[in-house]
Amino acid sequence: HTEDELSRSSHSNPGKSLVNGIKTNLASNSPKSSLPVPMGPPVYVDLAYIPNHCSGKNTDPEFFKRVRASYYVVSGNDAANGEPSRAVLDALLEGKSQWGDNLQVTLIPTHDTEVTREWYQQTHEKQQELNIMVLASSSTVVMQDESFPACKIEF
């Protein structure tokens, strides 16, 4: 939709907005939309960022059933906010088990967290069964006065 179409839609329907082409009620406080997700074939991509720093607020097994990536980036590093979420990491296992083919998937955590380490250790056999590899890296990038952990990805 063009900006004019979106603008007209919101003026003609006060309190409603278009999200992914579907009219939604802006007054809804629900963290997950109650609107049905249109069915369609899965989307295959090389690299996908797990939404919202791998928070369980809006990522579930359906995401991993529909968005099939060779690489998933997990950037959560805020235990107080449940990032990364163990439930989301488990959802990857559940979603991937529905793929039907055993394509290799690489999970790329950008931070070393207790949640990620425990999940890795407790589900290692399931990861192997589903052809999921967790990429661990102790590389550090130094830029000006700052340093941070990093992973190198080559395609």
UniProtKB/TrEMBL annotation:
<feature type="compositionally biased region" description="Polar residues">
    <location>
        <begin position="22"/>
        <end position="33"/>
    </location>
</feature>
<dbReference type="GO" id="GO:0007409">
    <property type="term" value="P:axonogenesis"/>
</dbReference>
<dbReference type="GO" id="GO:0005829">
    <property type="term" value="C:cytosol"/>
</dbReference>
<dbReference type="GO" id="GO:0016358">
    <property type="term" value="P:dendrite development"/>
</dbReference>
<dbReference type="GO" id="GO:0030425">
    <property type="term" value="C:dendrite"/>
</dbReference>
<dbReference type="GO" id="GO:0031114">
    <property type="term" value="P:regulation of microtubule depolymerization"/>
</dbReference>
<dbReference type="InterPro" id="IPR036866">
    <property type="entry name" value="RibonucZ/Hydroxyglut_hydro"/>
</dbReference>
<feature type="region of interest" description="Disordered">
    <location>
        <begin position="1"/>
        <end position="36"/>
    </location>
</feature>
<dbReference type="GO" id="GO:0005875">
    <property type="term" value="C:microtubule associated complex"/>
</dbReference>
<dbReference type="GO" id="GO:0043025">
    <property type="term" value="C:neuronal cell body"/>
</dbReference>
<protein>
    <submittedName>
        <fullName>MAP1A protein</fullName>
    </submittedName>
</protein>
<dbReference type="GO" id="GO:0045202">
    <property type="term" value="C:synapse"/>
</dbReference>
<dbReference type="GO" id="GO:0000226">
    <property type="term" value="P:microtubule cytoskeleton organization"/>
</dbReference>
<dbReference type="InterPro" id="IPR026074">
    <property type="entry name" value="MAP1"/>
</dbReference>
<dbReference type="GO" id="GO:0008017">
    <property type="term" value="F:microtubule binding"/>
</dbReference>
<dbReference type="GO" id="GO:0003779">
    <property type="term" value="F:actin binding"/>
</dbReference>
<dbReference type="GO" id="GO:0005874">
    <property type="term" value="C:microtubule"/>
</dbReference>
